Amino acid sequence: MSIGNSPEDERPFEDDRQEARLSVGHALKQARIAAGLTVDDVSNATRVRIAIVHAIEADDFAPCGGDVYARGHIRTLAKAVHLDPAPLLDQYAADHGGGRPAPTPAAPLFEAERIRPERRGPNWTAAMVAAIVAVVGFVGFTAFKGGDDGGTTQVADGTTPATTKAPTPKSEKPAKDPKPTPSDSAIAAAPQDKVTVQISAADGKSWILAKDHNGRKLFDGLLQQGDSKTFQDSEKINLVLGDAGAIQLYVNGKKIDEDWQPGAVERLTYTKGDPQVG
User: Fold this and answer.
1) Beta-carbon count within 10 A of 242 CB
2) pLDDT band at residue 101, thresholds of 50, 70 and 90?
3) Alpha-carbon span 196 to 188, nearest angstrom
4) End-to-end distance of the chain based on CA atoms, in angstroms?
5) CA angle 210–212–213, rounded 5-degree value
6) Which contiguous run of DSSP H or E holds residue 87?
7) Residue 38 Cα to chain centre, angstroms
8) What is the DSSP pairing of strand 195-201 with strand 217-223?
9) pTM, rounded to two decimals
10) Which of 27, 174, 207, 224 allows an S-S link to 22, with CB 3.0 to 4.6 Å?
């Protein structure tokens, strides 16, 4: 079993003429290397094509297809390498047009929320008409119900007796079963002639990449909190965890107790003999 972060050996280009303030692309590249991520890792996690990631890190935003797309890619890449995107977006705006772009019009749903009705005083005439209609309707309905009972409940002066309604039983909805969690006994039933790896996003969402011993992808995507995946192979399973701190891992029926930090990227390989004792 091998555990560790070993991204490609990349060092930022040293230039004595470089200004003290890092460019947007240079800042993203340095943060990626500091996080132990390769360009392939960032591309897989963000769905931004590898060529565009390379271009942005070189401060070439032409392949993005426009200012709006460039800002969106900067925001996405910054979050993937654990940077605050706001300063980078401000710097991009200053370098490419001198300020923030005009806000994009929101969808009609949000425009409706911004339109506030004109404040008007209460319409007392309409309220009085509604109250009269309600009273007349109630009296007519009571008189009709009294006629059905034989006419003995209607009073001569026009008043109506109080009626008692039978309580309506409340329908009790069965409680939903909690989402099943993997048990040690269920995982322990894994075949002995294979390696079985079960991954659960217990404490948050995490990007997961799983491959078999031939390098074929078994899974490549985002595991939402509460979701789980199980992988089997005849020889070994290779994993990349985008946020190892959010993951609970079982290998061949045994829980892997590792003190992974939130946001840590881990590359792991497990075989039929794992986890090894000692």
Assistant:
1) 23
2) very low
3) 9
4) 12
5) 140
6) helix 85-95
7) 23
8) unpaired
9) 0.35
10) 27
Contact 227, 200 (CB under 8 A): yes
Distances (CA, A) of 83 to 75, 88, 174, 254: 9, 9, 45, 35
Q: Six-digit token pair at 162?
A: 């109080």
190: confidence class by pLDDT, cuts 50, 70, 90: low
Separation CA 18–CA 2 (nearest Å): 39
What is the DSSP secondary-structure string of 4-50? E-------PPP-TT--SSPPHHHHHHHHHHHTT--HHHHHHHH---H
- Higher-pLDDT residue of 41 and 137 is 41
Cβ atoms of 28 and 92 within 8 Å: the answer is no
Give burial (CB, 10 Å; 0-12/13-18/19+) of 274.
middle
CB 156 within 8 A of CB 146: no
Amino acid letter, residue 62: A
Amino acid at 7: P
Residue 198: which H helix or E strand, with range? strand 195-201
Can you say whether residue 273 is alpha, beta or left, with left for phi > 0 and alpha for psi between -120 and 50 degrees? alpha
What mean pLDDT is predicted for residues 228-241? Answer: 92
Share of residues in the chain with pLDDT > 70 (%): 64
Q: Which of 196, 193, 207 is nearest to 266 (CA)?
A: 207
> Is the N-terminal amide bond of 167 cis, ω within 30° of 0?
no
pLDDT tens by residue, 110-164: 333 344 444 555 667 787 888 888 888 887 777 666 555 544 444 344 444 455 5
Q: In 3D, which of 1, 43, 34 has the Cα closest to residue 273?
A: 1
Tokens of 21: 């303030």
What is the token pair recorded at 4?
């560790």
